[in-house]
Amino acid sequence: MPRRHLLQRTAAVVLGSTLVSAAWAQANANATTTNNGNSKFVDLETVRATLKEGKVPVFDIREPAEHATGVAAGARLLPMSQIGARLAEIPKDQPVLLMCNTQNRSRKVAEALWERGYTHVRYVQGGMSQWTANGWPKVPPTQR
Questions:
Q1: pLDDT digits over 44-72, tens only?
Q2: 3-state DSSP call for residue 97?
Q3: Which DSSP string do the residues of 2-37 spell out, in sequence order?
Q4: Phi/psi at 136 (nearest 5 deg)?
Q5: What is the pLDDT of residues 71-80, one digit of tens each?
Q6: Structure letter (DSSP) for residue 100
Q7: d(CA 52, CA 104)
Q8: What is the C-alpha radius of gyration for the chain, rounded to an integer number of angstroms?
Q9: Which residues are catalytic?
């Protein structure tokens, strides 16, 4: 590979890593540690901005019947009941946000993932029920 192409490719990788790091730094700055010192969550405003940027994956772990009521544009659909079979879809070495309806399931899944070494996982405080209460737009799951 010519040196010029190698330098361009290296610059693109470094830039991409920097952008993801900056997005994650912002999410971490807005993350809150709960009283057990382990559980971390992010607020909905952070998630909304993260979805717009598209740099950090946000997984909607609600079940298909819940997805049918609408999803946040940009969220990836990964029902909680399928996580065990689809675990490889969740990056272990980069930031990930989990969202359910209220935060109960996403917190439990985050805790289970932390035990398996997924240290960059955060759950979304308030979930889709708060998203809906805020009047924020939802899209059909086929248009995500």
A1: 999 999 999 999 999 999 999 999 999 99
A2: strand
A3: -HHHHHHHHHHHHHHHHHHHHHHHHHHHT-EE-TTS
A4: -75, 150
A5: 999 999 999 9
A6: -
A7: 24
A8: 16
A9: 100
